[in-house]
Amino acid sequence: xxxxxxxxxxxxxxxxxxxxxxxxxxxxxxxxxxxxxxxxxxxxxxxxxxxxxxxxxxxxxxxxxxxxxxxxxxxxxxxxxxxxxxxxxxxxxxxxxxxxxxxxxxxxxxxxxxxxxxxxxxxxxxxxxxxxxxxxxxxxxxxxxxxxxxxxxxxxxxxxxxxxxxxxxxxxxxxxxxxxxxxxxxxxxxxxxxxxxxxxxxxxxxxxxxxxxxxxxxxxxxxxxxxxxxxxxxxxxxxxxxxxxxxxxxxxxxxxxxxxxxxxxxxxxxxxxxxxxxxxxxxxxxxxxxxxxxxxxxxxxxxxxxxxxxxxxxxxxxxxxxxxxxxxxxxxxxxxxxxxxxxxxxxxxxxxxxxxxxxxxxxxxxxxxxxxxxxxxxxxxxxxxxxxxxxxxxxxxxxxxxxxxxxxxxxxxxxxxxxxxxxxxxxxxxxxxxxxxxxxxxxxxxxxxxxxxxxxxxxxxxxxxxxxxxxxxxxxxxxxxxxxxxxxxxxxxxxxxxxxxxxxxxxxxxxxxxxxxxxxxxxxxxxxxxxxxxxxxxxxxxxxxxxxxxxxxxxxxxxxxxxxxxxxxxxxxxxxxxxxxxxxxxxxxxxxxxxxxxxxxxxxxxxxxxxxxxxxxxxxxxxxxxxxxxxxxxxxxxxxxxxxxxxxxxxxxxxxxxxxxxxxxxxxxxxxxxxxxxxxxxxxxxxxxxxxxxxxxxxxxxxxxxxxxxxxxxxxxxxxxxxxxxxxxxxxxxxxxxxxxxxxxxxxxxxxxxxxxxxxxxxxxxxxxxxxxxxxxx
Length: 778
Ligand SMILES: Nc1ncnc2c1ncn2[C@@H]1O[C@H](COP(=O)(O)OP(=O)(O)OP(=O)(O)O)[C@@H](O)[C@H]1O
Ligand SMILES: [Mg+2]
Hints:
By secondary structure, this protein is of the alpha/beta class. It folds into 5 domains: 9-102 and 197-283, P-loop containing nucleotide triphosphate hydrolases (Rossmann fold); 109-188, Arc Repressor Mutant, subunit A (Orthogonal Bundle), CATH 1.10.10; 313-384 and 557-652, Rossmann fold (3-Layer(aba) Sandwich); 387-432 and 456-547, PCRA, domain 4 (Orthogonal Bundle); 712-777, Thrombin, subunit H. It is 41% helix and 17% strand. The chain contains 27 helices and 28 strands. Helix 5 packs across helix 6 (136-148) and helix 22 (483-493) crosses helix 25. The structure holds adenosine-5'-triphosphate and magnesium ion. Adenosine-5'-triphosphate binds at residues 6-8, 11, 28-34, 252, 255, 287-288, 573, 575, 613. One of its GO terms (biological process) is recombinational repair. Residues 291-573 form the UvrD-like helicase C-terminal domain. It comes from Acidiluteibacter ferrifornacis. Keywords: ATP-binding, DNA-binding, Helicase, Hydrolase, Isomerase, Nucleotide-binding.
């Protein structure tokens, strides 16, 4: 039991008390997640079967890391049998095995929010509603919050209060949209994110034998980040725990930041009522951060009226004060942050991965990226347009979805005429109309296009039929081919690869690379199985695996040692030695929307608390006095949150005095004013500019150096092969797409040797030799 030595007394008490209801509500960095991890390890040591433990985490990555940690403590590979993951991924898995009870296919599709919005647009059109007044995102929000409160479409229509709310908003038809939305999802064999929880609740409510089964399976239930659960999640946990009551939740009310998505702080308070025998544990010592950081965070959160009383202290060093910097523009802020990272790396021998830049909104990443690129600092952005949200990736995945579940209507709409095959918009509208008229699925109409009168010409009918036959042929191969073989086959025979291959613009090349990257990912999935396992890893398994991946989960080897850029929301639970918190301006952070009510403002302040407490050694806060917003240059005031931190933990950076050409290269700095800083008594310099900054709005330039994994699918020229390891620096080689070049560096050990090649035409690229098809030339 020497692992228990890595815990303080309070943590140890929470770990060994494995039976009965337990709650740990404690401040950031006090070891809540560590307690959960050790508690599970402890249970396994005591002989609890891992199949009987359900542990719900905030990201799948957190689950993976926890499993690895547990494996290290207990040894062996029992930890892989734990039920551990996000609410969505765990209950999607359970819904698949129980799907037929809800009359869903077990291979149901999971619609992402883009699919949901596209479906809502369709429905608005069908109902003759204007999508300007019925904004799809607003309609989706209403539906989502109804589902999270377990209100079905029919209940929504019957609910007098909701109906009057919608009428007051001038949107009385949302209920009708919800009703059709529900029907269309069902018809398509699809569930959206909220359905995964909503339908689980229905399953547990309407099928006592199912509830009984899982109540007995999950003898122990653990939930991390409990403060951010919504009602639907709360109820699932409550039902499943009702028999054994071995339930342990950990969280921090000061870090509740998802109320806008229905998270309910009430769940913590309810917990005490639900389990009168509850044991609560207090953790007060922070192990993550320096004294300055802990104290600064405490002083900020004190401004919130609504919070549970708790102390957080640390025995760690004093550390440096929180540095506050001010720049003229957001671009300058990006450069300042990049320069500071560069210096800190040099001075403290820090690695790129030790740094995180956190912002309130994804749009702020642009100026940070530009700064980092200029300094040649590698970085990785989480969120924003994630890999799986890119058009070229969604297109290929839509084919894969369709092959698994031909009823998937959003997938059909996406690819029926992509790549172009002469099935126009009118035809698609007629097929949609016919499906509604006959109350059947799009796929049924498509399959029977020759015998159903949808009003299209014989020539178009043939094209639609060809499409149906193609999809059908792929479907027949699902059980026979590996996911990789089938997906490559789809990418080729549909013409997707060819389309990107023939586009030689930088964007076209990037799209081609992305599709290859996806195929490589599928290949890895197929090969990732225990030794001796000869089973086929098929496409349906792959699609289940990726359906709920978030960006944070989707890290690969190339992403190590990079600066992380993400929103504060995404940074929950994570820690980094150095944190840059940017854009600390009124109306941005706190956001404009939050200024109307105390509770919204308090949520923003909790977000601020989360941000500061991610840091181990140093926090840098910055704000700009002007930035582009919706195409206009606006001037900004420093955020009230800076002022709220006790002054003794802050250190203000004076901007360098410069007169003449400003560092942005545009406009001239002609006056320097003395203005009071947010801290009374201190002064800082603020530049005022005469001319407007004529910068172009966001342009995304692809990173200069990219690690490309290439598996050449086309064209097939046998003289190009993967050159195992018989290759040396200085060799001239030829690559099918990139042309001729010279090997300038080789790194890594076989089979993961990475070659840097200076191509004559396109410059330097790094390729993994196990994937790249090359030939040696004279
Ligand atoms: N007793 C301990 N001894 C050494 N290190 C510890 C101890 N307890 C926690 N830590 C370390 O402190 C850091 C914070 O712990 P952890 O992430 O579990 O905190 P948390 O309460 O879950 O934080 P958050 O509220 O941000 O989710 C981790 O690096 C963890 O390994
Ligand atoms: Mg945690």
